[in-house]
Amino acid sequence: MTDKVLQSGTHIARYDAVEKPDHAFEAQVFVRLTREPEVAETYIPAGIFPTEEEALAGARERAQRALKEHEF
């Protein structure tokens, strides 16, 4: 998993796209406070997409919304 990271103040959102067995891609977002370890991350599902590029775009958009709306 190649992580992409956004940060806003004291919060971090990691996002990525993971290929599933049916060759679709799951967009994944994980958010946490910067001072917390990764084990404390909250998972936010961001959807299933037909291509990796679409999944990454969807995940990034969802990560940005999570940071903006303080969804932790």
Number of domains: 1
The CATH class name reads Alpha Beta
The proportion of residues forming helix, as a percent range, comes to 10-25%
What is the percentage of strand-forming residues? 35-45%
- Structural class by helix and strand composition: alpha+beta
Distance, first to last CA: 22 Å
**Which segments are poorly predicted (pLDDT under 50) over 5 or more consecutive residues?**
none
Question: On the 0-100 scale, what is the average pLDDT?
Answer: 92
CATH architecture: 2-Layer Sandwich
Shape summary: elongated
For the secondary structure, the number of strands is 4
Helix-strand string: EEEEH
For the largest beta sheet, what order do the strands appear in spatially? 1-2-3-4
Largest sheet: 4 strands, antiparallel
CATH topology category name: GCC-box Binding Domain
Q: Indicate the radius of gyration in whole angstroms.
A: 12 Å
Number of helices: 1
General description of the model:
The protein has 72 residues and is of the alpha+beta class. It has a single domain, classed as GCC-box Binding Domain. Helices cover 24% and strands 43% of the residues. The protein contains 1 helix and 4 strands. A 4-stranded antiparallel sheet has the order 1-2-3-4, with helices on one face. A hairpin with a 2-residue loop joins strand 1 and strand 2 (11-19). The longest helix has 17 residues, at 52-68. The radius of gyration is 12 Å and the shape is elongated.
In short:
The chain has 72 residues and is of the alpha+beta class. The chain has one domain: 2-Layer Sandwich (GCC-box Binding Domain), CATH 3.30.730. It is built from one helix and four strands, in the order ββββα.
